[in-house]
Write a structure and sequence with these properties.
Layout (H helix, E strand, L loop, with lengths): L4 H23 L2 H12 L3 E4 L4 E3 L6 H25 L3 H13 L8 E3 L6 E2 L1
Helix pairs in contact: 1-3, 1-4, 2-3, 3-4
Length: 122
């Protein structure tokens, strides 16, 4: 099904935003969130425009990698649910989440990776 971007993107973003907020406790365990938040503040982990976390430096210790994997797995489930509700791909739902929810929560000094670009510090 082909939909105009200006028609489904806001709807997908709204569903993803609501699901991320409502499902945050399920997607992010407390210890994984603490580890990722610490790694973000150290510049080791950042947010990617595809809606997932990434390693800024390309390397991190096993605990940080496990925390990133855990959170990304939870996000993938949320994006799949939002996509199914909106008739879009999970990739589109994830990108909408980055554009509407995740990028707005970036703190000064944290890294993000725009579509097609390299890591940028906010």
């Amino acid at each position: 099904m082909m939909m105009r971007a200006n028609g489904w993107l806001p709807a997908a973003a709204a569903v993803v935003a609501g699901t991320l907020i409502a499902g945050a406790a399920h997607a992010d365990t407390a210890s994984a969130k603490i580890a990722v938040d610490a790694a973000k503040s150290q510049g080791l982990v950042g947010e990617q425009s595809d809606g997932f976390l990434g390693l800024v430096t390309g390397s991190a210790d096993a605990a940080v990698k496990a925390a990133v994997a855990e959170i990304n797995a939870g996000r993938a489930q949320v994006y799949a649910q939002a996509a199914a509700k909106n008739g879009v791909t999970p990739e589109a739902a994830a990108a909408a989440a980055f554009n509407s929810v995740i990028s707005a929560k970036l703190k000064p000094g944290e890294f993000y990776k725009p579509n097609g670009g390299g890591w940028v510090r906010k």
